[in-house]
Specification:
Shape: globular
Helix content: 55-70%
Structural class: mainly alpha
Strand content: under 5%
Number of helices: 17
Order of helices and strands: HHHHHHHHHHHHHHHHH
Distance between the termini: 45 Å
Number of strands: 0
Oligomer: single chain
Amino acid sequence: MNDDRLETHGWSGMLWKMLFFTLVAGYCLYYAPFGMNETDGGFLTGLGWQVLSGKVLYQDIVYVRPPMPVWLRALELQLLPEHLAILGERWIFYVKIGLYSYLGAAVLTKGENRWSLAVFGFVVSAHCYPPMAWHTVDGILFGVLAAFFATRGTTVGWGLAGVSLCFALLCKQSFYPLLPLFGLYLCLENENRFGKTIWFGGAIALCTGLFVNYLHQNNLLSNYLQMTAGAAAGGQAIQHGLLDYFRITPELALPSILLLAPVAWWFWKGKSPRIAFAAWSMWLFALVASYAAITWLRQDHTVPFAQSRSMFWVALLVFGIPFIAHRSSFIAHRSSLLLLGISWCASISWGYNLPILFAVPLVWAVMELSRNLADASKAIKFSTLYRLGMLIALLLAFRVGYEFVYRDGRRSEMHEPMGAIFPQLSGIY
């Protein structure tokens, strides 16, 4: 399922590889230490600490999600030095996003270019949620890991995909649709479908049996079903999984229609590729600029709901239309839609209902459409410089966003070391 159409020169691949690791480390050092919130930021930490103190989920603790993120946070608290309990949590957040961005890129493309896709996927994803332990991030990580193993094309890979998928389902109810989605993907396999089905189904049955047995042995099964069933309401899925995607502000929707019209005309008729490429580039920079402008005007932490939903619609069209039309020479194939499904599942949430926390499939749609337009118009000869320009624009815009720390104040005004007040906050300002 890999695609080699985005191969680049060796020096360019090395540049993007270095940028990837530099940015992940840079975010840990530059953004992680600032700000503190006592709501979402302490949610899984508090639950994990209660588990370590001897309390039992669904018996002593009321929790409406599956248990995997709480168990993972408890494990992190055990492994991290006490003075890095909070700062280390934020480092792990960025590492998780870096890991699933790379794995997603490895599913979609091979060779050197996967690093540029991983870079953009990481940067866009990391800026859409404050750094902290969260069940959606864990669910994405295991979902992408399942996709990575499944696309290796081996029976053992499908067995590992089954285990990883079960872990994703144990993170959050919104990932339940991944089970039929992976099943559909498996039905489209051409080689050894029966063997892969046995390994995949067997792994899922084994993990499910072990989890149900744990609940039954500890008299938790009834409590678990009662607590988690209410958080999986179908109304939320319809609202956040469908209706919310039409909630794009007119200030962004109207310019988008005007700028994307030449792109649609080129796609339909194959005419005026230079105009289409220019309009497409303007739309991309408009997305970035609009986020920075809105954030600065609000003077508060701002979530790119409208921008992310616009990107999702573009990705759905880029992947979906050729897939339906059986135009395999263009962009779409089933791996793209599989990863886009993970982004969609992540958007079904009470608060941050946006699909960009896993941005790799959205970014890949942008990169592929940009490449096709550039090839058709012969507008640019140096794609690496074009991408670097876009990366710089993103980093500058998101720096504006990070000036206003989630549920706190301005980053530039945070100078007091919190470790002097509370040791577990060492490294936080």
